């Protein structure tokens, strides 16, 4: 299906690996001009500009680069995100600030300095990568869970304030096979048992597996297209049915 995205200009933050890399792969297949904003240089071919999304000056410099080279920004995908573990009493203030600055302030800054160009163009789409943990959280993810809840509030605010010129949508993935997921598995069970842990997490999803970064990319490409022109201010969940499942054992009922 032709999504009508050919020659559009998209910025994807945190695109050097994981979900961001999967999103860029799909957008490039749709012939989108993609620019990757990341602090880490990518290991694959993509237009890249080094940006720490939590730093105003770097964000402005990156957006200026895109405008000077392409003349417009049609799609912004706020994907950059970091995670750490800790309940409220365990999280140091500096660590709290680090998580919130990247996961929330980064979305704010990227949107703040992109929106004026989209308004001038008369059209634009902002897609924020949130999480199933925007709705419910694991234990000991106080900063990360808070940040992903905040992304939904920011998504709705942008959607309401700038419609119909700009649409803003959030995507809420479940467990996706990324370096971040592998890090989490290693932290929990050690390096030798990462695959076993990821299979265990996959079994928690009704689809009996974790997702692939490209699957998030397919959803993002659709949401960025005019086929999704009436979707605004929503969080589209892509989690293999995880949120649909009540994690309790069912009573055994004899059938005759």
From TrEMBL:
Pfam families: adh_short_C2. Gene3D superfamilies: NAD(P)-binding Rossmann-like Domain. One of its GO terms (biological process) is monocarboxylic acid metabolic process. InterPro entries: NAD(P)-bd_dom_sf, Sc_DH/Rdtase_CS, SDR, SDR_fam. Belongs to the short-chain dehydrogenases/reductases (SDR) family. This is Short-chain dehydrogenase. It comes from Saccharolobus caldissimus.
